[in-house]
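User: Now give one protein:

AI:
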Amino acid sequence: MTDVFLNGKFVGETEQPKELVREVREKRRDGTLPEEFNARYNVDEENIRINTDSGRVRRPLVRVEDGEPLLTEEHVEKIKEGEMKWSDLVEEGIIEWIDASEEEDLLVAPREEEITEKHTHIEIHPANILGINASLVPFPEYNRGDRISYGAKMIGQTLGFYSANYPLRADTKSNILSYPQTPLVTTQTEEAVELEKHPAGQNVVVALLSYKGFNIEDALIVNRSSVERGFARSYFFRTYDAEKQRYSGGQEDDIGIPDKDVRGYRSEEAYSHLSEDGVVPPEVDIESGDVLVGKTSPLRFMGTGEFVTGMQNRRETSVTVRHGEGGVSDKVLLSETEDGNKLVKVTLREKRVPELGDKFATRHGQKGVIGLLEPEEDLPFTKDGVTPDVILNPHGIPSRQTVGQLLEVLAGKVGALSGQKVDATPFTGEKEEDLREKLRELGFRSDGKEVLYNGTTGEMMEAEIFQGIVYYEKLEHMVSNKIHARSRGPVTLLTKQPTEGRAKEGGLRLGEMEKDCFIGHGASMTLKERFSSDEVTLPICKECGVIAVEDENKGEVRCPMCEESEHVEDVEMSYAFKLLLDELKSMTIYPKMNIEESV
């Protein structure tokens, strides 16, 4: 007997497992069972699993019977003329949705010419084996699998034109590319998902060349003049919000310029950007730490006898710009929350010009940061005066085996010279021979190489350089978002150690390996300050080994156990260690410290 499971639950047994699975599939195809049913007989585990639950990834496949696909030219014509719809194909059992478990039993042909008697299904299009992002990669069948994964991942990190109504939106964080372009080398998926309405990159002239050593380790050399002309410029938007909250006891926040007698009042200069209503107006230059919305709140803890009327009873809780950010106030929105509280949203706009360290990538997973911004007059040029916008290191190609990248350079060149987009859809795109032939017809070398002249000396370069057009993406990993340094700054309340993270002006942690680097560089004295960020001097009783207490009335420091002050000595220790002693005491453990005189 074979166990039968429905959505993971045991529902019965059968003596004819293959017949049962076949019957379930047939009933699904003729509409007796819903099309969400997927069944599979697992021979190794000797069970049948039928799944109908939500959350499964399923994909459509065309059924094949007796070596012929059930989807015919007649069906395609009817769909084009509007006589049939997708749902009709599913209802008739021509196309069925298959999940990952049922797919194990099938033999799927990628193309019609590859169908044999053993095949059960055929792909609607060979590119359907890829997801949306992966099928946006041009010529992916020429690349290694991991590079397609990288490329697909980075397509999601690209700056572009994500929404036409971005000036009206109040997204927490967003980026807009100033001059986005649609790619010259494109895929059918791009058209299907209407990505040409939301472009995310720019077509640039790329030369594969080692130049001055500034593009080692995947770095890019970028033409400074191209940046000045607008290459890869973008705008970064961040929205800050302030809500006028109500508290128990009838108290509430107050949005406006705080009075001088409020606890935590900053300075008149800090509130100089604000209008009378306490909110910054649009198109004002803002720097890190400036106040965007003036706000005061009632005190957190109010004792019984210390209630004071007037403004001293309030604290300053204004919304300020994050550490390390700034820009121009782009828009101010005034509205209400669901509870009827006043809500203020201020969006900041910051112009981002490409700088050293900003990250770029092609759609083939060839990522890198800017290593040098070189003036155009110092870059190599062709006899026609064309200088590359980006110089990509050729050493990044052989080990990655991204042959699709080389084809895109050729295809982009053909597209730019002929004024037509080049189809690079997975498995069905233009062939290399055709691209070479078109280049030859356009009066260029078929291998894409050109003679370049040294921009500094004007001499002709000995080697011909592979040059063409590539669609480059600017990614959201920018130096201005990540750069971080600190000397002194805020500490946490509990441990008295520096705060953590760039947003909190945090310290940079030094571990064991960093310590070894300091010692290796002969800078071991710097460890003294680096490893004592929470150093504290405490009085310890030499006899009892506990922390002494200060008696303010008598003006002396004495041991709480032996109640004497003559054995008390000052000892340096980490504040975190002092916390550990306190925690041990709270668990009724006596942590005795043995103090010895240091030599």
